[in-house]
Amino acid sequence: MDIQVNGQRTFCYTGGKIFDPAKPTAIFLHGALNDHSVWILQTRYLAHHGWNVLAVDLPGHCRSAGDPPASVEAAADFVVALMDAAGLQQAALIGHSFGSLIALEAAGRAPARVSHLVLVGTAFPMKVSAALLEGSLQEPFKAIDMVNVFSRATLAPPPSALGPGTWVFGSSRALMRRVLASNRRVNLFHAGFKACDDYQGGVAAMAAVTAPVLFVLGRKDQMTPPKAAQALVDHAAHGRVTLLDVGHHQMLEAPDGTLMALRDFLAA
Amino acid sequence: MPGYSNPGFDTLALHAGAEPDPATGARAVPIHLSTSFVFESSDHAAALFNLERSGHVYSRISNPTNAVLEQRISALEGGIGAITTASGQAALHLAIATLMGAGGHVVASTALYGGSQNLLHYTLRRFGIETTFVAPGDTDGWRAAARPNTRLFFGETVGNPGLDVLDIPTVAAIAHDAGAPLLVDSTLTTPWLMQPLVHGADLVYHSATKFLSGHGTVVAGLVVDGGSFDWAAEHGRSGRFEELAAPYAGFHDMVFTDESTVGAFLLRARREGLRDFGACLSPHSAWLVLQGIETLSLRMERHMTNTRRVVEFLDRHPFVSRVGHPLLESHPSHALAQRLLPRGAGSVFSFDICGSRAQGKAFVDALQVFSHLANVGDCRSLVIHPASTTHFRMADDALAAGGIGQGTIRLSIGLEEADDLIDDLQRGLKLAERASA
Hints:
With 268 residues, chain A is of the alpha/beta class. Chain A contains eleven helices and eight strands. Chain A has an eight-stranded mixed beta sheet with strand order 1-2-4-3-5-6-7-8, sandwiched between helices.
């Protein structure tokens, strides 16, 4: 469904169910150069098991209008504005990679409005190599391939998102190319990576978080290795960690593992 | 496979989609000859049926062995995923039926396999889907054939029977300008010779019966999605592709483009096409194709080496009037083949002997290494004489109108010693020459 946020159309995938204000809501935030569809299986399941889901396309990405957020802080402001626009007093925030930093910052800014915080494939600081930052600008297709190689942990994922017969490397690459093409004004690849690289407020935000926090990390993740999340884990007052035997494509390579971690955490 | 390593073609041909079986340790891909798969619970069952969780329910829809093949061909083609089908014809039908119903329109190359031409020209017309045929090299013709209801452009990498190479970048651009995807039949070239998705095609299909399996033991098909065509955007512009971008009552009003930005075609093709039409592939057949793909590059390299030798031999032979392979500078697609198919334009081609229908028959009957049958893409060399077999009812003038001479011979060059193939052809040509016209 489309929600007007800051006067701009924002696409939110609702998991095949109509938004019901009476239900608790989970907001899903994708990573750099991704969109809502990276959460397809987790969101669809939760939408049919008692939750509203709003899996957004961030501003300026794919089906959402507006300027893409230039910083994690700006994106966090957008999340709070989205909650206001949707009439949500409180929601669970679930983010992947760049989206995890956005969720964290939003939870730090408005702790009373966040019921649960889930950080999938996170790190702080989330530094991006100079070569990759430059590559995202100068040779984005090559950099997309590089990111996808770094992100995968196996050539043979079990039944994955979208489902049996999906080649995760290819589908992730195609999605990133599509998202890149969706905005002719701003290089979303570079903008997302730069926002991750610039972000300084992770520890301070985590110190302000009052909601329970779940970290879903990939043992074989080379983009955000588990040790890179330790600073946040150490500062989470109510944190727990789930390690999956995957890389940075947690939702795609291990859709069930990611879903079960989310489901159990949200139910607790 | 951690680390910044991007496996090459041969590694993907062996490893993509499969690792040692976690239950048994089996290194080869197991054949899961099971029609159905046990649910963990009622909730698990409901979630699988409703596309909330990923897994196998029933082998008409998906199967673990088939899924390995689907991932492997996707990796080799540069796609996002694939669907195995009962045959190449089933793959073509699945692709078309996923994108349109009655009222739809296809723009297709005239240079097609006979079965594909028949499906488009006769059978689908009966179901309200029309096709306009265009010569593969007629750029203006491709452009002029597009209509507001065109849902698909379609051609073969190298067209039947003359091996006209499809200018995929040009035709893809025309298709995209017309708001339609390009589907390419890549059966005769395989991803080892060309990856159509890299050149701009949106969908690729194979008769895996041929070179992918490679041993003449199985009938199978595959359709691969490149994930490149923006169905939702085109639906917004023209209203087309409502099958993918509007609620589908046959699956809980699912909007496939909402579910997956790049995978909507595969979702609908599997959830409707396999479910309702049911042209699925046996897991045993999928395994046979996998066995073939593991040696695809080795075989294709040999196919190309042998083809080069045979083409050179035939081109020099005085009783041969024409050799139709883009290896030769005289072939109209020679330059295009050099650009799009630098490793070769395949090992299936035709040539004409300087003789009658009877002499063509005598030639085929004299061969001992080549097998006389109606297939291509086997590891064994194959031959057929259309005028005395597939087209035997046609009069000479009708044959000529179809680009087939009385002495036209089609070869599929296999993996035997090239010297033995040339000796065999030499013998056949000698006996044909002596035979009475």
